[in-house]
Every structure is written in C-alpha cells, then in structure tokens.
Amino acid sequence: MLIKVKTLTGKEIELDIEPTDKVDRIKEKVEEKEGIPPAQQRLIFSGKQMAEDKTAAEYKIVGGSVLHLVLALRWFVKFISIELKWYVYTNKGKFFGAIRFCYYHLFRFWLIVFIMDF
To answer: N or C: more exposed end of the chain, with fewer CB within 10 A?
Structure first.
C-alpha cells in the first residue's frame, strides 16, 4: 500500500509499505529516499509519536495515510571552567582564596556559576 510521509518543509515522500512493516522498517525506507538516519527521525500519526517496535497495522495505517516526519535534534552541553587562585601573606599567616567561574552552554543559553572558596 502507498502512504505519504510529510516533512515540516511541506515535502511529501511516497512510500510503498506492507501492513506488517514495523515503524523501524518505515524509517529505513525514508532513509533510502531522503538520506535521513532513522535515529534522527520521529514519525507522527494521528497526533502520536510512533513506537519503533509496532507495525503499521497496529496504528491502523491504510493506503493513502499521511505520516508526519519530525527531525530529532540532539542537545549538547559545553562546559568551561576558569579558576583564579591567590595567596595572601600577613603577619597572622598565609591565607588562600579562589574564585571559580563555570560556564555551561545548554540549550543555546549560557549559565554562569560563581563559586568562591576561602
């Protein structure tokens, strides 16, 4: 049976699938046509994300059904740590201090953590 997979850009991909095909097999067919790895694909049908271990028949997909393809973006975290240390000598002894700045780049925002040790 022929189904359509619609991307967020509006492009429609026609696929020939069987009712017994699992979702992971449908993702492989999308990869063959579009070059998008299955790990980056999320298929949506009737407003629900499709689980990879279920078949097209379990989702009641019939000829002419439209699946929606959403790309799964991976989040990343960058971490930078800067530490400044100093010693102060007085007549009462040696004192130590440190300031540590930790920068986390998370979800397109920088989070700054300021830690001071004495």
So the answer is: C
